[in-house]
Amino acid sequence: MAKKKAYMFYNCDLEKTTASMNPLYNTEVFSSTKAGRKALVKKLQSEIKKGSVKLIDGISMDTVERIILEDNPKEVTASLVFGAVIEVNMY
Predict the structure, then answer these.
(1) Cys-Cys link to 89, which of 3, 9, 32, 37 (CB 3.0-4.6 A)?
(2) Is 56 helix (H, G, I), strand (E, B) or coil?
(3) How far is CA 46 from CA 31, 33, 49, 88, in A?
(4) pTM over 0.85
(5) Torsion-angle region of residue 69: left (phi > 0), alpha (psi -120 to 50) or beta?
(6) Using CB atoms within 10 A of its CB, is residue 81 exposed (0-12), middle (13-18) or buried (19+)?
(7) For 1-91, where are the alpha helices, taking DSSP H only?
């Protein structure tokens, strides 16, 4: 059976340590479908608007959106401060 991918967003510390990523706080899983990826974009927009996540200097929300919608969403982690997107297997 082929593994399907899904993505989870976590608020985290500056170093992105796994100890700072709390699955009891960040409980949403975003599928790799077009709708799931769009929902992940909206989640990040919300977190950025609240100020709990920031983009690194020189990165725009348009770039983040393109990475999530067209590439591998976990790659957006390098563009985030106090946030991370991890990839998980979905069965």
Answers:
(1) 3
(2) coil
(3) 18, 20, 5, 22
(4) yes
(5) alpha
(6) middle
(7) 34-50, 61-70
Cα(39)–Cα(15) distance, integer angstroms? 25
pLDDT in tens, 47-80: 999 999 999 999 999 999 999 999 999 999 999 9
54 bridge partner residues: 81
Q: Are 7 and 30 in contact (CB under 8 A)?
A: yes
| Structure token pair of residue 44 | 């990040």
> Torsions phi, psi of 3, nearest 5?
-80, 135
